[in-house]
Amino acid sequence: MKASFKRFRFAPSVIVDALALYFEASCSLRQIQRFLQNHRSVSVSHVSIYRWIRHFAPFFKTVSNFLLQRANLQSDEWHIDETYIKVKGQRHSVWVLLDSEIRVVIAFHLSSVRDSNTALALLKQSHSITDATPFTIITDGLDAYNMPVAFAYPKAKHYIYNSFTDDCSNNVLESFNKTFKAWYKTKKGFHCFDSALDMISNFMFYYNFIHSHSSLSKQSPACVAGITYSQEQAKHWFLF
């Protein structure tokens, strides 16, 4: 797996700078446009930058799935929660399944509805990533979780927390949601469902494999999960 820069009229280093600013610095497309003009003397439209980011979404998703399948995701606790975004002005939910010990986002699902089918779709994605089964799956009191958790992970205990002061609350995922929202805030919503899916998929790649977490001694979740790769692979996969 190697990213292709064919048909791009700008140097790969310029595109990589734009990708880093979009995810690491949570810059808007127009902020990236101004940065490239002022610091790299590159004149490019914010629309082109947007196309760069979407272009690499399938590549990042392929790399992410390949690496997560090699991760140690056998954990005591997994957490599920939803956070909200807007797509074409309409409210949608981003459902997230996260390992509480290593902070890896195992799977996510974007949907305009909050029902059992959506929760089940999220858990089916997790089965395509890992054979691991947690001891406990923690959720809030949404009824839509009950059947999917019991069906997808019958050996796991389903714990429903009552408040944020609960010993088994979803505070770990609330911390993730704050990071996600800080990034999403600069996007001001998404124009279409496919665009939202691509951009969020890219963010999850960044969060799992690049972002350093203070709670993980400044390591990425992927590193804590035992995922390793060569320097050459890191270069090809933008893992630097």
How would you portray this structure in words?
The protein folds into two domains: 12-55; 71-224, Nucleotidyltransferase, domain 5 (2-Layer Sandwich). It has ten helices and five strands. It has helices spanning 12-23, 29-39, 46-55, 57-68, 116-129, 146-152, 171-185, 193-209, 221-224, 231-236; strands at residues 77-87, 90-99, 105-111, 136-139, 157-160. The protein has a five-stranded mixed beta sheet with strand order 3-2-1-4-5, sandwiched between helices. The mean pLDDT is 86.
State the low-pLDDT regions, or none: none
Count of domain modules: 2
Largest sheet: 5 strands, mixed
Please report the distance between the alpha carbons of the first and last residues: 16 Å
Q: Summarize the helix and strand pattern as letters.
A: HHHHEEEHEHEHHHH
Gross geometry: globular
Number of helices: 10
Describe the secondary-structure layout.
Layout (H helix, E strand, L loop, with lengths): L11 H12 L5 H11 L6 H10 L1 H12 L8 E11 L2 E10 L5 E7 L4 H14 L6 E4 L6 H7 L4 E4 L10 H15 L7 H17 L11 H4 L6 H6 L4
Helix pairs in contact: 1-2, 2-3, 4-8, 5-6
